[in-house]
Predict the structure.
Amino acid sequence: MSAAAPLPGFAPATPAAGRVAMSADVPPPGFAPAAPVAGRVAMSADVPPPGFAPAAPAAGRADLRERPLLAVISPRLAEGGAVGGAETLLFNLATLAAAAGLRVEFLTTCAKNHFTWANELPPGEFVRDGVKVIRFPVNQDRDADLFNSLQMRIGQGETLSDAEEEAWLRNSVNSDALMDYAAGAGFDRILTGPYLFGLALTASARFPDKTVLVPCLHDEPFARVRLVARMFHSVHAFCFNTAQEQALAERLFFKGTEAALSDTGLAPAAPATSRASLRERPHSVIGFSLPDFASSAERGHALAGMVPASSRPVGAVLQTAPPYLLYCGRREPLKGTPLLVDYWAAFRALHPESNLKFVFTGFGDIERPEGLESEIIDLGFVGEQEKHDLMAGALAFCHASVNESLGIVLLETWLARRPCLVFASGEVLTAQTRAAGGGLWFRTCAEFNAAVEFLLESPAAASALGESGRAWTLANYSAPAVTERLLNLLQR
């Protein structure tokens, strides 16, 4: 694959020889380590990865007066704002690029439901947060039953035939109208993801030399689909969320062209000598930009029903309000919510005197343990301010998912100055928590119990963990920091 020309308005990329090597042990450039927090309690293995100096501005970058044209392609964009983590990330990157002076178009579908992909929203153009958004209809000829059947077989680890993989892609979320528009619009770069959706796979196949893939990659059976391997071998560049996601992509796809193709059973599309090694492709850990926000622990306790409306001083409210753990998002086994409920119930059984509640926001069923039905508080969907207030009032935010490419809710919790409690089997969330010095992690029910006991008995240490996470988030996930990393990648 020949190297793509740099974007108009950008200086040529630095030669590959000067690029940082991809390695799980080498942290991404442009990130700062967690700042020391006075009074922080040292935990076992609580050593953040080596810090690095922020990336210097790219030498010779133009002032963007030529205004490169960037497309951001996403399967969905909810009416009131993004609801899924991937679409939230993609729209976040779009707003940063637009604020930096690029011409940006956010291309998405008319779908609201990520199971049916029915066209429920009107097609057309509008502007949101300074970004031009265009909705296109999802293809109506998709066979949802066939797709769901193939999706289930892939998820169970079954290897499909080439024809079945093509049928899986063809009946995923696709929009011929969107792709035809992109083909005629003259985009300089196309940012798209996540990796397992039809739109990203199709865009990568039609515009490989322009595509910057935001894979949101997980170590799961879908990452072993041969069409996915072909996509990773064809796109121009990669935008990762964490160093752990980057390392996973390296392990699965960046082993050298011949070896990786041999592993997937794909025949090279051209002699290996005519294409750059995958290690030499432009790639960077970019992340997600979060603005700082104000939050109130008192409002959080009131929202959770812990404190009746009163005019008591904040200190009195917090002293008398029962503590609570918090989870926000989808409630399902893949997110680890049943595990969290089981471990919390075990903690309550070991501590019958405890009044520790568990508060949930989001959607999905919760199986309430017998005898503790009233101790789980399900608030359903809440607004952003309400979510941030709940985070500020929580003992800790709990997250037991093992399939994440970036824990955005962890960053939000840290901005609200509270610690996080994550499942150690989730490599990304654990590494993120360690790097930030922003919480604890557990492997077993006993470790969960010990962590909760520690946070309850050591409020100063819990606050220090939250403050450490906040400082790390502000240093690494501010708009200027993420924008600089994004523009550095787009120019290559």
